[in-house]
Amino acid sequence: MKKDDNSPNIWVVTENLRGTQNQCVGVAEKLGFPYTLKVIGLKQPWKFLSPYLGFENHASFSGDTLAAPWPDIVIASGRKSIAACRYIARKSKGKTFICYLQDPRISSSAFDLIALPKHDPSRGERVFVTTATPNRITDQKLLQGREEFSEFGKLPSPRLAVLIGGASSAYDFTIETAEKLVENLKSVKQQMSGSLMITASRRTPPDIFSYLKKELKGKDTYFWDETGDNPYFGFLGWGDYIFVTSDSASMLSEAATTGKPVYMISLDAKSKKKGRLQLLQENLKQYGAVRDFDGQIENWSYERLSDAQAVAQEIKKRLPERLSQSSNR
Fold first, then answer.
1. What is the DSSP letter of 156?
2. Which end of the chain is more exposed for a tag (fewer CB within 10 A), N or C?
3. Residues 41, 3, 33, CA angle at the centre, nearest 5°?
4. Nearest to 175 by CA among 212, 145, 144
5. Cα–Cα distance measured from residue 17 to residue 35, given in angstroms and rounded to the nearest whole number
6. The whole model's pTM is what?
7. Angle at CA 215, nearest 5°, toward 213 and 217?
8. Contact predicate 3/115, CB 8 Å
């Protein structure tokens, strides 16, 4: 999108993490103006002490340059970006509107708006609560995915889009879980005379992906093996049902933004204690977007999520008042 003289100067400031970056970009795209992506890191000692150290300066950051002219709006997420938010706010003399996504775990006074999902407990005047995490899913992107991967339209319906994550700080992915998943997917595919579209992530253990590919290959099954263009939006566009492993907040939120039935594939939790991800899963189930996958599926409907749009609207709502306050300083 080409910037005109009247549009605000917007920076998206994140670490080099696809999940948090997509959240910020999703909100920026919903604002409807061009934006500049700033991928930053931190040098020592800020790298390990931020966001608690403070005293950020130009030498604190690696990656893309943070320099004047300062933006009108910053949309940021990720622990390392907190230092950048404080630095930009100070250098712009408070004129930049700072929106932070997720719970920063520091005082809300450092930001103009904090947008966080319902399962995070922080609340306050500057806090805006979403159902799940903002993302880039739109009707246009789903249509684009269908057009770019039109070959998926030749697969028998219902098409089961299976999004496989992997091992994480909260989950293991054992061969026993993979065996049960294979059994359940084979059963559903056969019962419904449908097809499988399967993709794995970089976190999927290689032996697990090899096993899945070996056991599920055959007629009317498509695997993406990270060669060629990523068919992710094609999967979401063409899938009649979407299956997502429980390790990914981003993929669960994105799937629920399509409005299609979403089934969660439970991986092996490392702890019985409920963490933030488990609370997100419960919220999505209570909302009606997600159900557990036990080998049986049915069709249902719910109001699709629109968290990125909601955050963008909240920024526009608060921005005139915020700019008016800044001009009087």
1. P
2. C
3. 70
4. 212
5. 18
6. 0.89
7. 55
8. no
**Integer Cα distance of 17 and 14 in angstroms:** 7
Query: Strands 97-101 and 73-77: what pairing?
Result: parallel
Strands 171-172, 268-269: pairing is: antiparallel
Shortest CA distance to 40 belongs to which of 21, 68, 54? 21
Q: Write out the two tokens for 268.
A: 């092996």
**What length is written for the chain?**
329
- With tokens 């800044």, the residue in question is 326
Q: Which of 61-65, 80-84, 106-110, 325-329 has the lowest mean pLDDT?
A: 325-329
DSSP-based three-state secondary structure for 17: coil
Q: pLDDT digits over 284-322, tens only? A: 999 999 999 999 999 999 999 999 999 999 999 998 876
SS3 string of 49-117?
A: HCCCCCCCCHHHEEECCCCCCCCCEEEEECCCHHHHHHHHHHHCCCCCEEEEECCCCCCHHHCCEEEEE
Distance CA 170, CA 211 (A): 22
Instruction: Find all residues with CB under 8 Å of 230, minimum gap 6, and list them.
Output: 199, 224
User: In angstroms, how far is CA 234 from the centroid of its own chain?
Assistant: 17
CA distances from 262 to 9, 40, 161, 184, 250 (A): 37, 34, 10, 15, 13
Q: Are 88 and 103 in contact (CB under 8 A)?
A: no
Calpha distance 315→105 (Å, rounded): 21
Report residue 271 as tokens.
């702890």
Tokens representing 13 are 């400031």
Give Cα 73 distance to the centre of its chain: 20
- Distance between CA atoms of 109 and 272, rounded to whole angstroms? 34
